[in-house]
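Journal club prep — side note

Before the paper discussion, L.F. wants everyone to see what a predicted structure for a comparable chain looks like in token form. Sequence:
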Amino acid sequence: MSKLLLMRLAVLVALSTSARDFSYTYEGQTLTYTVLNENAKTAYVSRSPNHDISGKLIIPEIVKDGNTAYTVVSIGRNVFCNCYDLTEVTIPNTVVSINDEAFSNCSSLTKINIPDGVSYIGPEAFEYCSSLTEINIPDGVTSICINTFSGCSSLTEVTIPNSVTTIQDMAFEGCSSLTEVTIPNSVTSIGYMAFKGCSSLTEMTIPNSVTTIQDMAFEGCGKLTKAEYSSIETLCNISFSDSYANPLYYAHNLYINGEKVTHLIIPDSITSIGNYIFIGCNMTELTISNSVTSIGFGAFEGCSSLTEVTIPISVETISQYAFYECEKLRTIVVRDDPKPLKTDVKAFLFDPITTLYWGRPLDNFNLNELGTLSNLTTLEIGNTVPEIPDYKFYNLTKLKYLTLGSGLTAIGDGAFKDCSALTDVVIPVAVETIGTNAFAGCNLDNIIMGSKVKSIGEMAFDGCTAETVYITTPEPPTASNNTFSNYSGKLYLQNEQAKHTYYNASPCWNLFDSYAMVEPTALEVSRNDSTDKPGDTIQLTASLEPDNVTLPQIFWRSTNTEVATVDNNGLVTLMGREESSAATRAAAQCKIIAETLYANGPVAEIDISNGATSDVTVVIPDRTERSEIDYNAPYEVYTMGGLRMACEIDALTPGLYIVRQGSTAKKIAVR
């Protein structure tokens, strides 16, 4: 074992034990020393008489007690504490430790040299040395202790050596003149209030070794403009215990490996976005990968330039204040998924939101807890939402555009009551019940309802002008005379037979003048190709024939949302849960269905198998008894893309085609 290491160990073990003291005068300054090890002839500085040391102090390497010489290896606790007139200190190269509060409150100290051999600087060693402008920390120091440099308000620059692994609580608190700190790649943790009140700090580089930053580590760093990390993974692997710990809270500008981030992409390697990770970041765009399952407390709080957020299907929880005070956030998209999304109180600041797409069950979507949607103009409900609970979107007076998903089966009482800017509504094909006062006070001019509506509650459309009402269900839904408040508008029904049925239905329906619609005869769907990776999308497009169909709306749904979901625009998202085995996913059956509002209207089915789409099968149900194609009678042939072929089947080139005869359609393969 080396002599130096022995001395260091001796210092740490023996400082608190009783030993012989003696005084020694050097360069006119008298100090008290304590023998540390008689055999090794080592001593440490233990007292300064009456703390009256002033001016320049030189501590010698060798001190004598009579004729016996001792090597000075340490500066003890509180030795120079409150030596207000001490201005400069020279410490000998033999010293290996500077102990607790050694120079605390030396408010006139402007210069001190710390020898390279020093491996330990104790808590509060230089606390409130308010005139100290620079400090060198030797390579052997492994930790910047509690309050070591706190209150050093004139300190402008600090270089922390690669030997340091921890920056402890309040280590640089109140170093208000500190403009730059270099944290080496050896540091793993930054303590509580470590840089609090460093109000002149403009840049901070966090190395990839740092895993923990404690509460309020950077609180009050108001001039911090740049926070740099080596990678997003580095940032996401840090544990921030509160918002003031993350330098981004003040910096606003995030830099990754020297590049300023304006479009933040959360990569597939990240599964959880921790607390306060991106708080205050000045990004304008955000992409969250489908690997992310949770978004932590305050994760994007105060991202004031962010205008749009899309929550992917993988996210299961969003914690409090995750997107709070994102003052320019206008659009939120929550992708379709049948799983509930757990969203804590004030996860979003909803007040500025103007456009909302919500594709999760609405049970946990509580406006009373999450905020208000007072400025919402556009609302789209995804296809995996089964119902609109009672009064869920009540009194959204600026709501002008509403799209309801094909998965809806029920619209609750007062669900959209007093949404006074709403002038049109399309009730999807699967809805069976519309609650009391559901759209009362909405000023609806056009009301369109699908083929499965069975009951409509009292005053459901009270106060609506109802210039036109469309409904395709063959049997009139149960309704009362006050379901509508205006019966002077036109009632459009699917066909002449429906007109007769509704004319004989009372109350309610016989009060309208009714008209027959133009029904669709064909539904054609095209698609793009895709891979089978979870999260990938497939765009489906559909068109109806004839061109003058009264209700051209297409509704999309999935028969197995564990395999794939589809939004209102025909965008299919492959789910492919990662926890499922490949064999399980391959065996899962799923079809994407495209259908109209019409009863017994044309339907398109697209098979999804292990993430790949099949060709489109178009089904046009016969309204009487379905029969096969009679190829001896006239028929029409179409390509899968909808192009009509002017030829017989025998003349077709190999491929897939649709053959239509009357109300019957069949997909054929020509080989």
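L.F.'s comment for the group: The longest strand covers residues 29-37. Keep this in mind when we get to the figures.
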